[in-house]
Amino acid sequence: MTYDCVITGSGPAGLAAAFRLLEKKPNARILLLESARISSGGLRNDCKMNFTFPIGFPLEYWDEKTASAYLGDIESFLGPKILDQQNIGVYEKRAERIGVKLLKIRQAHLGTDGGIVLIKKLVGELTEKQVEFAFGETLVSADTGAHRAVTSKREVSYGSLIVAPGRSGCDFLRSFMAATGIPYTDNSIDVGLRVETTLERYPIVRDYYDPKFLFPDKTRTFCTNSGSAHVVQEKYTTLNGSVYYSVNGHAYSENSAPNGLVNFALLRTVSFTEPIASGQDYAEMLASMAMLAGGGHPIMQRIGDFRLGQRTTRGGLNGDLYDFEPTLGSATPGDIALAMPSKFLESIWQSLKKLDTIVPGVLHPSTIMYYPEIKLYANKPVFLSDSFMAAEDLYLVGDGAGTSRGITGAWASGMRAADGILRRQGRP
């Protein structure tokens, strides 16, 4: 079987590439592979979208003019409802006084339930355009010279191949690049905590849904959720088959009943030099240590216990100062300092103290810290073109390939790869 384009990964990068190709070449024959049984990716996880450069756009691949042009196309296509921002001047001034920056970002939020509705709509539209979806089917290898790909179920020929595995596919992509002879580096990681507290103790979210604070030491807030907000654990499998869980945050749409809670991540970025060969291997080692300390689950610790230098216990989650139930009940009460390197923990703790000065109340004794939250987009392939072509007619896009960080950036990278394919075919 021969296809004009084979796309692996049905997240925003893969979907965007398919739509862009069909916009210019309506009769293109496209096969879209997805290893999961359903369409996955960032659209399914809270579906929070940022429409301001540079959020989601790694600066080594994007400039403001290029990213803004794609953001305009994305906004026209998806038609998001941009959230209002009000009364944030006071927070900006407090932040500036202590060396912290609050970014103003145009945002939209559909929630996990709204994201699922959007996915069904997009998949339905592509199906009507004769895109062939293959769920539960994985790309195994590719022969770039012969333009042939082997999947877990068959062998196909392609004109172009787009690989967009997302963050959960970072290990797959490393193996694929090694087997295909694509050079890459892997030296940058984001490691941090997810913080959960009450709306009253983080009221800024009433005026700015996902506030973006940049702290010293390459530490930042990330992925804030409020309204009907929950902390979840996500399963990952390393190259050697070990399983670990990273925490994440979700919120449902405004149609869901609020639970009065807020959660957000605080992440520290570290870029390694010699002798560490793989930042991703290092991050997975940290996650494995957390699983060991947490008995196979993420660790949670109340701020009050952390300040006293003592572990949180199940019995200590009482109705006194600890006045709300953790939404990730499977997390193990414990001591984060036993599993998290001090360099990360110290930067994040100093940032939390600054944040408590800007938004007083965050460091209430009942506030929970969950560990680990690890973002895997460390792969940096060597590209042959500005459209993310890494080998002849083979394109690597999305968060897993390091070309984006988030839904809109991933969508833009898929479009950019499709534009590169169309240019090689002589289409404008």
What does this structure look like?
The chain has 2 domains: 2-83 and 107-185 and 378-424, FAD/NAD(P)-binding domain, CATH 3.50.50; 188-375, no CATH class. The radius of gyration is 22 Å and the shape is globular. Strands 1, 2, 6, 7, 8, 9, 21 and 22 form an 8-stranded mixed beta sheet that branches. The chain has an 8-stranded mixed beta sheet with strand order 4-12-13-16-11-19-17-18. It has a two-stranded antiparallel ribbon with strand order 3-5. By secondary structure, the protein is an alpha+beta fold. The protein has helices at 12-24, 64-78, 89-97, 111-128, 170-180, 279-293, 303-308, 342-358, 407-424; strands spanning 2-8, 30-34, 48-50, 101-103, 107-109, 132-135, 139-143, 148-151, 155-163, 184-186, 188-198, 212-215, 219-225, 228-237, 243-252, 261-271, 299-302, 332-333, 368-375, 379-381, 389-391, 394-396.
Structure characteristics:
22 strands, 9 helices, globular, FAD/NAD(P)-binding domain, alpha+beta, 2 domains, 428 residues, 8-stranded mixed beta sheet, single chain
> What is the approximate shape?
globular
User: How many DSSP helices?
Assistant: 9
In CATH, the topology of the largest domain is named FAD/NAD(P)-binding domain
Which structural class is indicated by helix and strand composition?
alpha+beta
In short:
This protein has 428 residues and is an alpha+beta fold. The protein is 29% helix and 29% strand.
